[in-house]
């Protein structure tokens, strides 16, 4: 099978913003990531060998000057010296361990320096997903004309219902080619400016805001969307404790980026922990919050109430919804928000793997262990979230932290 990942920036923007954050705050940190399959998939015999073959190609995937030029333009918050680092970065397969048990379950571990290993999350997930869809025959049965038509229909629905929406579908896409088609099509439809029917021309009320995939953002001159991931909060919990980790990440993140990258992902340990010590200073420094778990309407009300309690007008702040949405659900949330905040939407699998007769995967790679330096002790990292189904990590630690939260 051909090499699946062929471009260095075929990765999410938050990978690069988090990598630079790590280099500035914890340059000696070491971590371990673990692959989780929430569907408990039985992979075909020999899948691990095919995956290792694909991962073995990665050292040859290096950044190009074209990619650097785009990142300098669109990801302006990254300093010049960071691109010198990226020129010298090479994926290291020795950081990976991939095995498959007799039943067919897949086990993947990534271990090494945090600033290096962070680059593996997206390649692992997108390779596993595309490889599985290839072996299942989904790619062979793919109908390009039909999927293009469906993408046009989806984009019309998004834009005519006032949604400001970005693609976040790299990790569980059916294939790179399908992902590429989706981004190209959404941009083409958006640039039409609206649609015409018997009543005349109707301009779009929504907006296609960009994609989290840096390579595809470069290909189509879009905004590369993304700021941070849960892992930096998971890590910080082991440093400063569950009740202070969000505050300390907000402070360090804002110091590193000097006010840029201002959307904070707050739900790593649930909303109660976050809102309990959100200060007015930090609330003012960040543009808004991303809702990635819980019931969106309930989370919105809590966010609005918290901003009001701090004397901040919620209408001046952004809220990004990104929890496994489809278009109908996003429209429902948008109507509920009703202009009370600046709402936008990040949509992933529904855009990049919602293909006829194809079942999408439910896979993640999460931080599960850390130590601040190579000479310090290891600690377990966990994620609790506002959804019990998204709780990951050492069960004993999860239970202990949940008891502390109450």
UniProtKB/TrEMBL annotation:
<dbReference type="InterPro" id="IPR036068">
    <property type="entry name" value="Nicotinate_pribotase-like_C"/>
</dbReference>
<keyword id="KW-0662">Pyridine nucleotide biosynthesis</keyword>
<dbReference type="InterPro" id="IPR041525">
    <property type="entry name" value="N/Namide_PRibTrfase"/>
</dbReference>
<comment type="function">
    <text>Catalyzes the synthesis of beta-nicotinate D-ribonucleotide from nicotinate and 5-phospho-D-ribose 1-phosphate at the expense of ATP.</text>
</comment>
<protein>
    <recommendedName>
        <fullName>Nicotinate phosphoribosyltransferase</fullName>
        <ecNumber>6.3.4.21</ecNumber>
    </recommendedName>
</protein>
<dbReference type="InterPro" id="IPR007229">
    <property type="entry name" value="Nic_PRibTrfase-Fam"/>
</dbReference>
<dbReference type="InterPro" id="IPR040727">
    <property type="entry name" value="NAPRTase_N"/>
</dbReference>
<keyword id="KW-0436">Ligase</keyword>
<comment type="pathway">
    <text>Cofactor biosynthesis; NAD(+) biosynthesis; nicotinate D-ribonucleotide from nicotinate: step 1/1.</text>
</comment>
<dbReference type="GO" id="GO:0016757">
    <property type="term" value="F:glycosyltransferase activity"/>
</dbReference>
<comment type="similarity">
    <text>Belongs to the NAPRTase family.</text>
</comment>
<dbReference type="GO" id="GO:0004516">
    <property type="term" value="F:nicotinate phosphoribosyltransferase activity"/>
</dbReference>
<dbReference type="Pfam" id="PF17767">
    <property type="entry name" value="NAPRTase_N"/>
</dbReference>
<keyword id="KW-0808">Transferase</keyword>
<feature type="domain" description="Nicotinate phosphoribosyltransferase N-terminal">
    <location>
        <begin position="10"/>
        <end position="129"/>
    </location>
</feature>
<keyword id="KW-0328">Glycosyltransferase</keyword>
<dbReference type="Pfam" id="PF04095">
    <property type="entry name" value="NAPRTase"/>
</dbReference>
<feature type="domain" description="Nicotinate/nicotinamide phosphoribosyltransferase">
    <location>
        <begin position="165"/>
        <end position="383"/>
    </location>
</feature>
<keyword id="KW-0597">Phosphoprotein</keyword>
<dbReference type="InterPro" id="IPR006406">
    <property type="entry name" value="Nic_PRibTrfase"/>
</dbReference>
<dbReference type="GO" id="GO:0005829">
    <property type="term" value="C:cytosol"/>
</dbReference>
<dbReference type="GO" id="GO:0034355">
    <property type="term" value="P:NAD+ biosynthetic process via the salvage pathway"/>
</dbReference>
């Amino acid at each position: 099978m051909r090499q699946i990942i062929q471009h260095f920036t075929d990765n999410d923007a938050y990978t690069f913003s988090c990598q630079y954050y790590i280099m500035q705050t914890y340059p000696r940190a070491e971590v371990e990531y673990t692959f989780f399959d929430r569907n408990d998939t039985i992979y075909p015999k020999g899948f691990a060998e095919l995956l290792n073959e694909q991962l073995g190609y990665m050292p040859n995937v290096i950044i190009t000057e074209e990619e650097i030029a785009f990142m300098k333009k669109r990801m302006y918050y990254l300093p010049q010296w960071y691109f010198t680092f990226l020129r010298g970065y090479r994926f290291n397969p020795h950081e990976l361990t991939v095995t498959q048990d007799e039943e067919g379950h897949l086990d993947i571990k990534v271990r090494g320096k945090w600033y290096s290993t962070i680059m593996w999350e997206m390649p692992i997930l997108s390779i596993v997903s595309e490889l599985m869809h290839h072996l299942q025959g989904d790619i062979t049965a793919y109908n390009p004309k039909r999927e293009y038509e469906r993408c046009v229909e989806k984009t019309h629905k998004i834009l005519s219902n006032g949604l400001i929406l970005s693609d976040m579908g790299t990790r569980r896409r059916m294939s790179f080619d399908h992902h590429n088609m989706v981004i190209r099509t959404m941009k083409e439809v958006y640039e039409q400016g609206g649609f015409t029917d018997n009543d005349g021309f109707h301009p779009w009320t929504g907006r296609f805001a960009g994609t989290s995939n840096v390579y595809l953002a470069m290909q189509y001159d879009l905004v590369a969307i993304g700021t941070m991931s849960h892992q930096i909060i998971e890590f910080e919990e082991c440093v400063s404790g569950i009740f202070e980790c969000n505050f300390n990440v907000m402070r360090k993140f804002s110091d590193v980026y000097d006010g840029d990258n201002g959307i904070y992902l707050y739900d790593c340990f649930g909303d109660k922990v976050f809102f309990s010590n959100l200060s007015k200073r930090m609330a003012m420094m960040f543009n808004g919050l991303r809702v990635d778990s819980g019931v969106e309407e309930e989370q919105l009300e809590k966010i609005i109430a918290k901003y009001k309690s701090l004397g901040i007008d919620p209408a001046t702040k952004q809220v990004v919804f990104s929890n496994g949405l489809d278009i109908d659900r996003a429209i429902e949330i948008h109507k509920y928000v009703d202009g009370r905040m600046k709402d936008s939407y990040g949509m992933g699998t529904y855009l990049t793997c919602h293909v006829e007769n194809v079942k999408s995967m439910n896979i993640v790679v999460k931080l599960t262990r850390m130590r601040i330096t190579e000479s310090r002790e290891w600690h377990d990292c966990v994620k609790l979230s506002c959804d019990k189904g998204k709780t990951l990590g050492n069960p004993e630690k999860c239970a202990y932290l949940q008891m502390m939260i109450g």
